[in-house]
Write a structure and sequence with these properties.
The chain is α+β, with helices and mostly antiparallel strands. Helix content is 50%, strand content 9%. It comes from Actinomadura craniellae.
């Protein structure tokens, strides 16, 4: 055996030794969803950081402390997706890595500083707590219209008829896109998460994605030529570390903002309503004590259901953290979902306690890449939830009709959640008419301007 072969064998032996303890868990399998609680408890007790031999091999972090210590180490972690192979060849935040179909980065979530930092600085004024306050009347009115469409019938699908629509319309409003186009984006954004490539429906989903992509590029060019307030206008005019983003980079950022704005809030809302239907005493308590309970209940639903299950990273330099030896180029998965069930931090972790105190969950991530839309998500969720409690207080979800995502390796979502309730009275105009009105409000009041320019709440009076 020559020297080079000998060195290779030594490296393999060394890798095998340091890649312990080892597990074999396919996060994209039904086992991950169906045995989640058992797996979480096992990993927390035996291997809070482990080498997972699936999908090419990567480190899997499930412990709360271990994840906290790793996620904040931007000095040794990279989110970069090196599409052109001109840097270090890193593969972004997806594990398994993206297929050859995707030739753009997933927005600033697949960038490292300083680019990532410039993007967040540019977009924060549109998504801050103060900025979100200005949008609450719009969120309330869209939610009211969605419920009005079903209130007289006594039947609703909380996914199709509410939780899909409200976040979609609001996200387009924030972007500065036509609100009526929400349905161009809604189905493909959700379906691209839950439809596997071997599904007979995959080709249809691809066609929907293509239609959505063409529409998005046309919108980018339209706003570039005829500026209108919103996140897209900021993206086409901002300077990022000395350069102007091209259309494909902006496209990637928009997919990140739309995907994050749509599917995660939908998932949280659907799961929470399903649980409240299963626990009517807790539903009545939450409605009765909402002034003191709504905030803690929201954080507890976020912890328990963790819509975005985790993110990938690449180790950017050799290091040892809490006794685990990482090598440059190693892949790492940060399991926000499992860390949120760590019994060392959360008493009775597999049970929802609406009044849980000191809820240090990681559902919006940690460190420099923490979710930029967390304020929007919380506000939208609370408004949808409270309006359902007020107008459909006795709702009962149909377990036979509820359809969860087959796998939850990316988003812990639902496709359908039908329910029945005692019919009530409409309070206003229907959805289409309301969306048209909200478009006029957005345009005339320039609602999508950043909070540094516009601080007032939307006014909906005719």
């Amino acid at each position: 055996m020559d020297t080079e072969e000998s060195r290779t064998e030594e490296n393999r032996a060394g890798d095998a030794e340091r890649r312990k303890p080892a597990i074999s868990l396919d996060r994209l399998s039904s086992r991950y969803r169906l045995e989640f609680e058992e797996l979480s408890t096992e990993f927390h007790g035996k291997c809070p950081v482990a080498w997972n031999d699936t999908h090419g091999g990567y480190w899997f972090t499930s412990g709360h402390k271990e994840l906290f210590d790793l996620a904040r180490r931007a000095d040794v972690l990279s989110n970069d997706f090196d599409v052109e192979g001109v840097r270090r060849g890193y593969q972004g935040i997806s594990i398994p890595s993206p297929t050859g179909e995707r030739r753009f980065r997933g927005g600033f979530l697949e960038m490292d500083p300083p680019e990532q930092r410039y993007y967040r600085q540019a977009l924060n004024p549109y998504l801050s707590p103060a900025a979100v306050q200005g949008w609450k009347p719009v969120i309330e009115e869209i939610t009211r219209a969605c419920l009005d469409e079903k209130i007289e019938s006594g039947r609703i699908d909380f996914v199709d008829d509410l939780a899909n629509i409200v976040p979609a319309v609001l996200t387009l409003a924030l972007l500065g896109m036509p609100l009526k186009d929400w349905d161009v984006y809604c189905e493909p954004i959700h379906a691209m998460v839950y439809t596997p490539m071997d599904s007979p429906l995959y080709e249809r989903v691809r066609e929907l994605q293509m239609t959505m992509g063409v529409h998005m590029m046309e919108t980018i060019n339209g706003i570039r030529n005829n500026p209108r307030p919103g996140l897209i206008d900021e993206l086409v005019t901002c300077e990022i570390n000395g350069y102007r983003p091209d259309d494909m980079e902006i496209f990637g950022v928009l997919l990140l903002l739309i995907g994050g704005g749509f599917d995660t809030t939908t998932a949280l809302t659907a799961h929470s309503l399903e649980w409240l239907s299963e626990h009517p005493d807790q539903r009545e308590r939450l409605s009765r004590e909402r002034e003191t309970l709504l905030d803690s209940a929201t954080e507890e639903f976020l912890r328990f259901y963790t819509p975005a299950q985790g993110d990938g990273r690449t180790i950017s330099q050799d290091c040892v953290i809490n006794g685990t030896e990482f090598k440059e180029g190693d892949r790492l998965w940060l399991s926000w979902a499992m860390a949120n069930r760590d019994e060392k931090v959360f008493e009775d972790p597999h049970t929802i306690h609406l009044d849980r105190k000191g809820n240090r969950h990681n559902s919006f991530g940690l460190g420099i890449h923490r979710c930029i839309g967390s304020n929007v998500a919380r506000a939208t969720f609370k408004i949808m939830l409270t309006q359902v409690l007020d107008r459909m207080p006795d709702f009962v979800c149909d377990p036979a009709g509820a359809v969860h995502y087959d796998t939850t390796g990316v988003i812990n979502g639902m496709k359908h959640l039908p329910a029945t309730f005692t019919p009530g009275k409409r309070l206003g105009a229907g959805l289409d008419e309301t969306i048209a009105k909200m478009q006029r409000v957005c345009d005339e009041q320039r609602l999508a301007e950043p909070v540094t320019v516009r601080k007032a709440r939307a006014k909906l009076d005719d």
